[in-house]
Amino acid sequence: MWTTASVLGLLCVFPVLTTACDNSDPCQFTGGQAYTPTAERTSSNGGLVQTLTVDISDVTIEWLTVQRRTYNGGFPGPTFRLKAGDDLNITLVNNLGPQPAGEHNEFRDPNTTNLHTHGLHISPLEPQDYVLLEVGPGETYEYKFELNADQQAGTFWYHAHHHGSTFFQVASGLAGLLIVEDEPSSMSAELAAISCPNNCNKEVPMLLGNFIEYSGGGATFASVQEDIGDPFTLDDTVVTTAGVTLNAYLTDQQTGVSAYMVNGQVRPTITMQPGEIRRFRMVNAGPSDMLLLTITGCEITILAYDGVYVDTPYSQDFIFIPTGGRCDAAVRCATAGTYEMRSGEDTAHEPSIGDTGIYGGVIATIEVTGASVSMNFPTATPAKPSYLDDLQNVANSSIGGRYVVELGPTPFLNREQFTNTTYFRYNFDVDTIQQWVFVNSDEDSGHPLHMHVTHFQVIAYNAYNGAVTVGGGGGGGGPGPFAYYDLSGNLCDQQHRDFDPNAIVADPITVDTTYLGHDTNDRNLAGYARIGEFRDVLLIPPLASVTVRFKATDYIGPYVLHCHILNHEDEGMMMVTYSTPSGQATASPWESSGGHNPGTCKATDVYPDILQNTSDGNKHAVNTWLTALWMLMVACLNHF
Ligand SMILES: *[C@@H]1O[C@H](CO)[C@@H](O)[C@H](O)[C@H]1NC(C)=O
Ligand SMILES: *[C@@H]1O[C@H](CO)[C@@H](O)[C@H](O)[C@H]1NC(C)=O
Ligand SMILES: *[C@@H]1O[C@H](CO)[C@@H](O)[C@H](O)[C@H]1NC(C)=O
Ligand SMILES: *[C@@H]1O[C@H](CO)[C@@H](O)[C@H](O)[C@H]1NC(C)=O
Ligand SMILES: *[C@@H]1O[C@H](CO)[C@@H](O)[C@H](O)[C@H]1NC(C)=O
Ligand SMILES: [Cu+2]
């Protein structure tokens, strides 16, 4: 007899039976397991001591078993929970074996590694966050990271960062979360109610990444694995029930399995009560894709980007996280039901993003069930440390240095590929306020620019008057010939070091100006940071010019800049600037590339010092006004 229970039982068992796949009988991943955070290591008595051993391990994702480079055999690495001022002493053991020498600015050195604490305000010198260090096969290195006493509490991450194998190793799983916890007394009651240390059960740490990407349009794990010469490929002697090898099955766009994993899980289920608010700590650890996230049916309140709190939390129906970026968001689903957290392109936001690659698919399911609870979203965030002072209204005379960083479709930064670890493209004095302009000469695609050592504040999206890169395609072995043109298609007189006038395709040419207009577009489009927010990775949209400022404070040493599309970085889209002791800055606002000035087209171009007015206008004025009022009130209160 068919009872409801037995029918339900059958329905529930049936999918499990049909998905008993393995490497010789592959199928799509089912996902849906209960969300599980990664194992955590919490600091105590001012420090955390940890060994991270890099070795080859079996990684099993549902039915698929692959061999990957991992930390301590896990996938991903452990989550570190620290406090401002802590020591993070890490012994990095590289157990990998010898490898052939590779070509500079190509995928190489699968067995060389190092460690980057992405987003921390930290010394870039040994034994701390010096990413130009190489920990070779068989070597061990003792990192002694000293977190700044004023380190902003937030969501950060750590990952391997050796130029040439960054994509391969991060996509392999050499990454983990690094959370700097808030002092309970610094948080409002609403924020404390969804945060560690007292309400850790409300935190949802999510290291997101397409770690098992075998097929796709751009660089995939499989394509880079082949280029880099990794021997731990799938066994191609096993023919699957589909009649092809597992490798052929996985790399076929039609059959290939794919998932933007959450802490190494495929599309996990997060269970919440109606009305409950949780603090999602999201890291986009995927090597190349942007995330444009939505949770239709639930409410999202933005708390922080890149580990820096926004001044006032605000609600938004999407979350944009470029590769390398983070977002802390308070999430609430009011009514019982099943909701999807998914990422995908949205034509409404395209003017701010261009054709930059965005992952498409479900990332997690939110199952809302049980008794309703009543909670309130935070309306205030903790005060920021002084290294993150608001620099929007600093006087022109207080700007202590200016610089331009130009990205483009070729794997160049400032019109050159990465050269070497001591070629500093710009030296700037420590303890100065820097004003830099990030420019993208790519007419179609945005590139997420990451700066090490400290965050920068977004000041303005300027009208674009820079150069447009034309040509340069060619793939492996470096770009083909390319040249810079102005927006009307006339050849620029400011070119690049390897410019060859004989290789010009045609002059004039037609420039695609579809994505011009970042100075006048709706500021609420996903690809834009709000004016005044801080970032350590910022998408620079196609044909964009963005002014940022930062306090070059506390640390002397190399500030590495690179595109966080990690295949671009490995291919040369990286450079080094240097924060020098006072008085040693180089004078020029531009460092020339073979006698040409990045960021410009004509020799007569003026450095973009006068900013376009792209600020949120009145909203901004009101904020400043309210801030002034608030400061007055605080001053009065302190007075009594
Ligand atoms: C980390 O290493 C430094 C330098 O060796 C040492 O002074 C410090 O005590 C260590 N911290 C911890 C928590 O062990
Ligand atoms: C890397 O190290 C592994 C052992 O850990 C070794 O099997 C492999 O041959 C080495 N070389 C390359 C290119 O992967
Ligand atoms: C700001 O200062 C720079 C350098 O001193 C100068 O070139 C520029 O004209 C000034 N801009 C404004 C708006 O005063
Ligand atoms: C680094 O590159 C620069 C620029 O090409 C060059 O002048 C310098 O000699 C190089 N240094 C080393 C140590 O190779
Ligand atoms: C920018 O626009 C706002 C509002 O329209 C105005 O209050 C402000 O003075 C303008 N700033 C500049 C530098 O033009
Ligand atoms: Cu890029």
Automatic annotation (TrEMBL):
Its EC number is 1.16.3.1. This is ferroxidase. It comes from Branchiostoma belcheri. Keywords: Metal-binding, Oxidoreductase, Signal. GO terms for molecular function: copper ion binding; ferroxidase activity. Residues 1-20 form the signal peptide. Belongs to the multicopper oxidase family. Pfam families: Cu-oxidase, Cu-oxidase_2, Cu-oxidase_3. InterPro entries: Cu-oxidase-like_N, Cu-oxidase_2nd, Cu-oxidase_C, Cu-oxidase_fam, Cu_oxidase_Cu_BS, Cupredoxin. Residues 67-184, 255-344, 414-465, 532-581 form the Plastocyanin-like domain. It comes from the Eukaryota.
